[in-house]
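Reopening: Tripartite tricarboxylate transporter substrate binding protein still failing for me.
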Amino acid sequence: MRFRPFSCFASAALSIGLLASSVQAQTFPPKKSISLVVGFAAGGAADAAARMIAKKLGDNIGQTVVVQNKAGAGGILAHQQVANADNDGSVLLLGSVGPMTISPHLMKVPYDPFKDLAPLSGGVHFPNVLVVHKGIGAKTLSEFIELAKSEPGLIDFASSGSGSASHLAGELLNQRAGVEMVHVPYRGGGQALQDLIGERVASYFAAPPTAAPHIKVGTLIPLATTGLERSADMPTIPTVAEAGYPGFIALNWYAFLGPGTMPEDIQERWNQELVKVLNDPEIRQSLLDYGLTPQPTSRAELTQFMEQESAQWRKTIQERGLKGE
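Support: Ran it again with your exact input. Result attached.
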């Protein structure tokens, strides 16, 4: 079948239309309100970081950035929402370690974290701190491990949910220390912490900002933190690596992503704006005061970081024979 050529007028009109469409597609910032989706309820570390950054981001670009909390399924629902969102740059995600690099190895998730979501920049990271209730009798990690070895299958550890950073930190310790602590998943860190204080579970890899008040009054005993270096907020507490398990690392991290179909130029513009905010001295200090270490990166650096995290947790999950709960 032979197609008739367009008239000059039709060709010109089409060219103008395509140019206008291209300009419209590349408009930055988007004309409409911008959503920053967070997969956790208001009040936690992720929400605090999101609100600090969103306010400064909005001020810098002259556009409103609204934090949208979408809790559920350990953050998976929020990641799914952004994977299916408009790709015009109006919807961003504060993604996290669990839904991005742990849950996809535990269960079938409704998105591909490396195809359906576009990495924009690292956000923040922080170690967990392994805490036990004072009734457990252990004051060091080695004492706790000895207790777990002497009572196999009787010592447990809480987590904020199956596939969370606190869950995999416990499983990694099981693997490295040769113990079999029992995993007790909760629907969030708040409930896990309360049951630990109530001595209904033995231990929990908690976020330092939430555990610190209970450590201060002696209700909880800190044994070790999960970064490679000691936490600036808890400098007297050794790392798990220092306490006898070299190379042990299990960080909580949050990163900025967009829909996987977001145009490259808009991805790059968001990277520039996010890195600018994360490097802002006032924002940086505010995050550090909250126990969160800023982690601005290029898009390529974030991709590489997520690939490394995914590989580590895939190995742990496979070797431990873990399944989604």
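The radius of gyration is 23 Å. If you still see a failure, please send the error message rather than a screenshot.
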